Predict the structure of FAD-linked oxidase.
Amino acid sequence: MAWLDQTGVQWSTDPQVLAEKRLDRSGWEPDGSPAAVVFPRTVADVQAVLKGAQETRTKIVARGAGTALTGATAAGDGVLVLDLSGLNRILDVRPADGVAVVEPGVITANLDRAAAAHGLRYAPDPASLELSTIGGNIATNAGGLRCAKYGVTRDAVLGLDVVLAGGERISTGRATLKGVAGYDLTGLFVGSEGTLGVIVGATLRLRPLPEPTATIAAYYPDVETAAAASVALAEARIQPVLAELLDQATLDAIDPGLRATGSALLIVQTDGGPDEAAHAAEVLAKGATLVQSAGDPAELLKARRQALPSIEKLGRPLIEDIAVPRSRLAEAVRRIGVIAARHDVPICTLAHAGDGNLHPIIVAGAHGEPIPDAATRAADEIFALALELGGTVTGEHGVGVLKRAWLAKEIGPLAHDLQRQIKAVFDPLGILNPGKAI
Amino acid sequence: MAWLDQTGVQWSTDPQVLAEKRLDRSGWEPDGSPAAVVFPRTVADVQAVLKGAQETRTKIVARGAGTALTGATAAGDGVLVLDLSGLNRILDVRPADGVAVVEPGVITANLDRAAAAHGLRYAPDPASLELSTIGGNIATNAGGLRCAKYGVTRDAVLGLDVVLAGGERISTGRATLKGVAGYDLTGLFVGSEGTLGVIVGATLRLRPLPEPTATIAAYYPDVETAAAASVALAEARIQPVLAELLDQATLDAIDPGLRATGSALLIVQTDGGPDEAAHAAEVLAKGATLVQSAGDPAELLKARRQALPSIEKLGRPLIEDIAVPRSRLAEAVRRIGVIAARHDVPICTLAHAGDGNLHPIIVAGAHGEPIPDAATRAADEIFALALELGGTVTGEHGVGVLKRAWLAKEIGPLAHDLQRQIKAVFDPLGILNPGKAI
Ligand SMILES: Cc1cc2nc3c(=O)[nH]c(=O)nc-3n(C[C@H](O)[C@H](O)[C@H](O)COP(=O)(O)OP(=O)(O)OC[C@H]3O[C@@H](n4cnc5c(N)ncnc54)[C@H](O)[C@@H]3O)c2cc1C
Ligand SMILES: Cc1cc2nc3c(=O)[nH]c(=O)nc-3n(C[C@H](O)[C@H](O)[C@H](O)COP(=O)(O)OP(=O)(O)OC[C@H]3O[C@@H](n4cnc5c(N)ncnc54)[C@H](O)[C@@H]3O)c2cc1C
């Protein structure tokens, strides 16, 4: 990587630095270790690195915070890690236009806080928002809790600045709230997991901060009744900001005593004012064993927040991420339970009920031990179930390396081939995050 | 076109049929007349036609209702028009999932009515909704009045069935509300103006019907004050369903007597309940010469509805369609006035103020007469103005033939070249709507 010296950009081959930038949060391990990590500070730095990479046929993995759950950010033998965390300026917040202009390394929550100072907010809120970067959110099209009402990352991205594989810079989309000039290149980069270009700037839509939310926690005797309650909300024209479903295995992991209260919990927040909140409480009461709506939202959300830490106490969590049509939610949860029993692996399921996105968390043996085959087989059956129910193998985390085989099954050979040809248009030499996503 | 007989699909070369399917609503005239019009009734019909077209190198223009305002649907010499209006079934409305599955020829308003029967609605509402088809809306990424709050067509499209140039069929996207498997081919087809493939089916998101709307009409002494009022709404965290701005030239066209009341009119609808409506009325009152909020919404919207018919009485309307950052709205309206004066052509400007999308309507001489050069020059200056203000040359109508030169200026040569390469991936022989969009 001596050519990096000519770019003038800071870089490192320190083994500790390499080790820090080798993995993402999926636990997936690539062969070998990256060759170097480079720390650009400006867009020109990124251009210089990509130009050199193209000339030297060096493979590049763009990296934000490395919180991906799919292996998308993993960097193995000979790869150059392009660490974008140093491009972290919020360049502009324009309340009158409802937009912000940022560099890719900005931490998601920091942008939201900067917007809040103007009575606005950046709506997409992946649970990783205090760690993850906007660039990583865009490259994975991250979802979040409030996306049931306010949309996923795609819905917040108006325009992008991208450095292409050869080092050229393009702008896509626009700075306006609407626009239809030409093919939607912006949409193509969103969710492309670093395989089409490096995002070096983004113009994002901000939304007015809504009224403070009202929070309701409702327990049900079974997951069918809980799922029916979440559909009933939509039928009552209530659009919850979030609607989180916790199944019995999850409740057991948090506190076995909760079994007395119910075997499925639905936590709902609304921000349409007191009338909507009262209406939601009324709808959720149907079939419920307990409805709590007074008190502190933090208190009511506690179970949701405790879920992952509690499950982690049981063993190594594999966080899966399927989505099904909303009407199949209960069936999906039930059948994941059957899969868990058949393979004798604990699976705790959390779901963003409003949009049919489930996170079955497979407890795959003890921490640090190899993943048992039964866990892998259970995961495969969960993916097959998602497709059988008319759903998708990834609702928000993306494909990375872990779901490549399933992507082909989901989209079919023709669409897959088109995606490969699009990849070849943007990255003919295949240097950008090779082996990922498609 | 004798090969069409082998497809078994009904087709016609009747001169009257050809004349009916030759133009869209832009007034732009291609050279010559299409060779034939074919009327598929099934997806298999579309596949057979495209297969034959590929083999015979026949150029295809997909056609919904032909309401495009850009020349996108115009079909000249030797072209085969693929009329999709016969594929007009609403296949499924699934309230629990919040989705509908439709064929492309469904009239936009018919889908909205079918959804309303379930307490839902199809949000995108182009002013052409009683005529336009869902396929045409998707192929142009149509906007509408309520998209300020509820999004454009892109935001409502979850998945597509598409017949490719060679007759193969693919599915893109999904039937779930969320999903990130692979590159966003759905987004690529949305807005592609029939140049990448033929849309033969769509899975669309439906939303709960909101509360009945409250309507407020506010007159202002000048466009700056009116635009400031619309920004003040956002700053007060109010998200209007629609916010339509009419400038002085438009008010004059409707009724010169309105000058006494004000020289800019802002019509706002909210659907967040009575408190939000009262708050909106209060915000809009600032600087207003008259605020009407009681009474019938139809009455208050009358001026907006009368605008186009009134302008048409002045002569042939060229409906332009730029978008600028919301904070530049007043400046854009003002400077369009200066352009009108300089070229001595009347220009009436209507704007979707909530998202900075302006429709300057140039009165281009008498109906049926050739378009005067001054009108063309004025249009070019309006496009240049849009780019100067950080905007786009098309907010919602698309590129078609009329804005091709401007597209290249807006997106730059590199992005333009990538778009051409994407076109070549999908349509290597260039038979799909050649010469349009990119
Ligand atoms: C505790 C936890 C909770 C999570 N919760 C959610 C959740 O609620 N919803 C959700 O969707 N995800 C969630 N995730 C997954 C992950 O946080 C998101 O995918 C996040 O968007 C990744 O951001 P990052 O900055 O860490 O990206 P990274 O992991 O660094 O990168 C992710 C991918 O994007 C590419 N990339 C990064 N930056 C750029 C760039 N500037 N240009 C081009 N490509 C780039 C990388 O190459 C890689 O392919 C969670 C993860 C954790 C660990
Ligand atoms: C009075 C009036 C008001 C309007 N108001 C608005 C408005 O508020 N907002 C707005 O955005 N537009 C508006 N328009 C423009 C126009 O109505 C929209 O662009 C509409 O979406 C076009 O639909 P259509 O079915 O008529 O499409 P067509 O004109 O038939 O086709 C438009 C384009 O889509 C392609 N196409 C059509 N069907 C398919 C298919 N199934 N597969 C692939 N390609 C296809 C065509 O080849 C063409 O390129 C208005 C037009 C009129 C005349």
